[in-house]
Design goal:
The protein is of the alpha+beta class and 329 residues long. It folds into 2 domains: 260 residues, Bira Bifunctional Protein, Domain 2 (BirA Bifunctional Protein, domain 2, 2-Layer Sandwich); 56 residues, no CATH class. The strands form 4 sheets. Strands 1-2-3-9-6-5-4 form a 7-stranded mixed sheet, with helices on both faces. β7 and β8 form a beta hairpin. α2 packs across α5 and α2 packs across α6. It is globular, with a radius of gyration of 21 Å. It is an enzyme of class 6 (ligase). Its EC number is 6.3.4.15. One of its GO terms (molecular function) is biotin--[biotin carboxyl-carrier protein] ligase activity. Pfam families: BPL_LplA_LipB.
Length: 329
């Protein structure tokens, strides 16, 4: 059984993106060890052999899905988790019990992110509500409003709170000066998470309207004339880490059937969904083109997930279609 990894959060004031910084930390450690780093006996805690996270106050070049810009001012959560991936040939966790993500979890990792993100949000809201002395039933009402949108978004009252990106990375370097860079054979999944806590971007394309966690707190304070404390990025990062790795080291949860069923249970099926489409338009100044994001006018509604976690939607004519990787507004 894999061990729950020690919490390892690396904080920075400003980065280009947290994912870029995570790749940089992995590569530096790999090059320093000149290839020996990927043996399973490497001590726990080294950034290239155990999970770690990069958390930043702001990003200068934050990215959303499809290359969209993710506006990243201070006050929100910008985080990337680096997760070692089990070698496909091994098929088993490392002998020393160190954490490595089973390859079977990769197809549904996006769903896990949505489930864990929702649970982290709800846990912190309930903790802050309880600390202010408010009754528990109000927290239950929040449960019904904080939902998920396939494949990983967190939604409050039909507005987007967070989203995530997943990338894979294999560090490479030249073993000798003058030699070409070679891959190390060690694979990582990088899970980038962005959560609107204090601010949310004004939607300038066809994207879904957004809101923030502390807007929820403001609503509760106004409703109850209370002084519920605001949520901070650091406490959300710590809570997300604990719940994420607690989920993946729980044998009753870390399987495809449980994940698919759990996500479908909290998925907001009342949302009107649209496929995202792009088109090229002349760039400002007349040189080249720029990509414009828009939405297909066809309204879709989530019906359920299939056994692989793919979304089945209903179209206006009543027919259904299974979506594998399309991005939906």
């Amino acid at each position: 059984m894999m061990k729950l990894p020690a919490r390892k959060l690396c904080y920075f004031n400003e980065v280009t993106t947290t994912m870029t910084k995570a790749k940089e930390l992995i590569s530096k450690s790999a090059e320093k060890k000149k290839g020996s780093f990927y043996t399973p006996s490497t001590p726990e805690g080294e950034p290239d052999t155990a999970p770690f996270a990069v958390v930043a106050d702001s990003q200068t070049a934050g990215l959303g899905t499809g290359g969209r810009q993710w506006i990243s001012p201070p006050g929100n959560l910008y985080c990337t988790l680096s997760i070692p991936l089990q070698a496909a040939a091994a098929g088993q966790a490392p002998a020393d019990g160190a954490f490595a993500l089973p390859t079977a979890m990769v197809p549904v990792l996006s769903l896990v992110c949505g489930l864990v993100g929702r649970e982290a949000v709800l846990q912190l809201i309930k903790q802050h509500v309880a600390a202010a002395g408010l009754a528990a039933p109000d927290a239950a009402a929040i449960d019904a409003l904080v939902r998920t949108k396939w494949p990983n978004d967190i939604i409050y009252n039909h507005k987007k709170i967070s989203g995530s990106l997943i990338d894979n990375y294999e560090p490479s370097f030249a073993h000798q000066e003058g030699e070409p860079a070679r891959g190390t054979g060690r694979q990582y999944l990088l899970l980038g998470v962005g959560v609107n806590i204090e601010t949310c971007p004004k939607i300038t394309d066809a994207g879904r309207e957004a809101t923030t966690l502390n807007a929820i707190i403001d609503e509760l304070n106004a409703k109850h004339q209370a002084t519920i404390a605001k949520i901070t990025a650091n406490e959300l990062a710590e809570t997300f880490w604990d719940l994420f790795f607690g989920f993946l080291t729980d044998e009753t949860k870390a399987n495809m059937s449980y994940i698919v069923a759990a996500f479908e249970e909290v998925m907001d099926k009342s949302l009107v969904l649209h496929r995202r489409v792009t088109r090229e338009e002349p760039a400002a100044g007349g040189e080249g083109t720029t990509t414009v994001f828009d939405r297909d006018p066809t309204e879709l509604y989530a019906v359920k997930l299939n056994s692989w976690g793919h979304l089945i939607v209903k179209k206006p004519d009543g027919t259904e279609e299974t979506l594998l990787s399309e991005y939906l507004y």
